[in-house]
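Worked Example 4.2. Consider the chain below.
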Amino acid sequence: MDKLWAPWRIKYIRKKKQDKCIFCQSLKSSDKHYVVYRTDYSISMLNIFPYNNGHMLIFPIRHIGDLTQLKEVEVLDLFRVLLNTKKLLNRVLKPDGYNIGINLSKIAGAGITDHLHIHIVPRWQGDTNFMPVLCDTKIISQSLDELFKQLKYAKSKYDLLSQGRY
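Applying the procedure from the previous section yields the following structure tokens:
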């Protein structure tokens, strides 16, 4: 059997599992949770267990589990944060495409069912290979810390550009 060493995962394996919502926890510590955007109603952050490099999660600040519970202002803000996150990923990672989706309920594939969230997963031509097919292993090519720094830097430049100050 081949082995793929991933020593950084030991922190997750040994971590005491919490009943606390990871999305609500991100409100307390933005950098610890890789928060890139935060508005009055929504947040986007890097997924710490990504399907692909740059996989981000966009969610309302209010702890709700279904789209029908969103207020109109939250819907608009959530979509604005999604669009800004996509623009930022375009600038930093330059992907060829995206998978963007919402899993509502455990049956539909939601790992966290009681706090609504949107996945945005950058995709590149040829980003699939034999590893997932033969080994059930996905290779992520960049550390979260490195990507987070790049996104925050690009966001600061982008924010200045959008305000006409850069």
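DSSP finds five helices and five strands in the chain. The chain has one domain: 18-162. Compare this with Example 4.1 before moving on.
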